[in-house]
């Protein structure tokens, strides 16, 4: 290392889906793929499934984010491999917690804030210790075949868009879910042009209008993660579809904890869950 630059960052997670967060209100520190990979590296960097920059719309350098009303906070989300994504459901809750703890925004219990993402503006509300994000309308698509290590035969997967692309595969049992090896990305046939996040789901029970599922996920650009918020919505909405729309509220258990998905009267999917900041630090290497 030559010149030592310093920069502050926070580390946070939502049900174990972890992120490096950087405040850059005026857009003075744009992210690059190389910088993101260095920050997200779990051995040579801070480590995370993704890197998130908090920047004001108008200063982001990204037309999709700068289209929001000036002053709106923009979530500039990058996967650990240095690719950008349209949206991150766990990330947007952690992002709001980060704004609050950094005194960049204020939110009383029950109040909400609009955050611009590459998938449009998302409303995030503070609900006691949890945060709820309106991820908007979701779209169910067609089928494609999914092959993964640990699966005996290829399975059909359903395309679901929650702003970013997902393919959801139903499994028969917890044993099948546990037997999966998700070190390598599942193979999709046909392969989607921009890749996809792949969720494997075991449907549970439906009682009193509430359904439950268990899920594991392989995220585009990050590998297997302990949770994926948009993936939880995709998995819940695929299972809801398979059940004949039997429930509008879904409990989603992921390896990193529990999320809740609810469809409102407008057909918007709300994602509710924790958003934790675990430390704040000062970087001593040029990447920060
Ligand atoms: N973990 C996120 C999704 C992050 C982006 C995803 N890997 C993609 O490329 O679309 C979530 O909580 O939604």
From TrEMBL:
Could you list this entry's UniProt keywords, alphabetically sorted.
Amino-acid biosynthesis, Cytoplasm, Isomerase, Lysine biosynthesis
Instruction: Cite a GO CC annotation.
Output: cytosol
**The keyword NAD is assigned to this record:** no
Q: What class of enzyme is it?
A: isomerase
Q: Where does substrate bind?
A: 17, 79, 89-90, 164, 197, 219-220, 229-230
Where in or outside the cell it occurs: the entry states: Cytoplasm
Identify the pathway: Amino-acid biosynthesis; L-lysine biosynthesis via DAP pathway; DL-2,6-diaminopimelate from LL-2,6-diaminopimelate: step 1/1
Query: Is-annotated flag, keyword Isomerase?
Result: yes
Q: Name one GO molecular function term.
A: diaminopimelate epimerase activity
Q: Which reaction does it catalyse?
A: (2S,6S)-2,6-diaminopimelate = meso-2,6-diaminopimelate
Any idea of its EC number?
A: 5.1.1.7
Catalytic center at which residues? 88 (proton donor), 88, 228 (proton acceptor)
**Primary residence:** cytoplasm
Q: Which InterPro entries match?
A: DAP_epimerase_AS, DAP_epimerase_DapF
Biological process terms from the Gene Ontology for this record are: lysine biosynthetic process via diaminopimelate
**Residue numbers for the site described as Could be important to modulate the pK values of the two catalytic cysteine residues?**
166, 219
Assembly and oligomerization: Homodimer.
Q: What is the annotated role of this protein in its UniProt record?
A: Catalyzes the stereoinversion of LL-2,6-diaminopimelate (L,L-DAP) to meso-diaminopimelate (meso-DAP), a precursor of L-lysine and an essential component of the bacterial peptidoglycan.
| Family in the record | Belongs to the diaminopimelate epimerase family.
Write down what this protein is called. Answer: Diaminopimelate epimerase
* Native species: Agrococcus baldri
């Amino acid at each position: 290392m030559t010149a030592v630059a310093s920069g502050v960052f926070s580390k946070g997670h939502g049900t174990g889906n972890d992120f490096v967060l950087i405040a850059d209100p005026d857009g003075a520190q744009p992210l690059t793929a190389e910088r993101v990979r260095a920050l997200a590296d779990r051995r040579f960097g801070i480590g995370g499934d993704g890197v998130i920059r908090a920047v004001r719309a108008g200063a982001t350098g990204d037309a999709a984010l700068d289209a929001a009303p000036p002053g709106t906070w923009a979530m500039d989300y990058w996967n650990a491999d240095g690719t950008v994504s349209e949206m991150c459901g766990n990330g947007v809750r952690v992002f709001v917690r980060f704004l609050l703890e950094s005194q960049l925004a204020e939110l009383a219990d029950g109040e909400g804030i609009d955050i611009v993402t590459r998938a449009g503006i998302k409303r995030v509300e503070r609900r006691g210790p949890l945060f709820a994000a309106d991820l908007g309308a979701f779209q169910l698509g067609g089928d494609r075949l999914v092959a993964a290590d640990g699966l005996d035969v290829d399975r059909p997967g359903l395309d679901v868009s929650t702003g970013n692309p997902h393919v959801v595969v139903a499994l028969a049992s917890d044993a099948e879910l546990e037997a999966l090896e998700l070190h390598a990305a599942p193979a999709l046939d046909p392969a989607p042009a921009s890749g996809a996040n792949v969720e494997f789901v075991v449907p549970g029970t439906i009682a009193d209008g509430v359904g439950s599922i268990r899920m594991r996920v392989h995220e585009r650009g990050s590998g297997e993660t302990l949770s994926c918020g948009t993936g939880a919505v995709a998995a819940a909405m695929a299972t809801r579809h398979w059940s004949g729309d039997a429930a509008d509220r879904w409990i989603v258990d992921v390896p990193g904890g529990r999320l809740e998905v609810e469809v409102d009267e407008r057909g918007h999917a709300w994602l509710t869950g924790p958003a934790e900041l675990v430390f704040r630090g000062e970087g001593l290497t040029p990447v920060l």
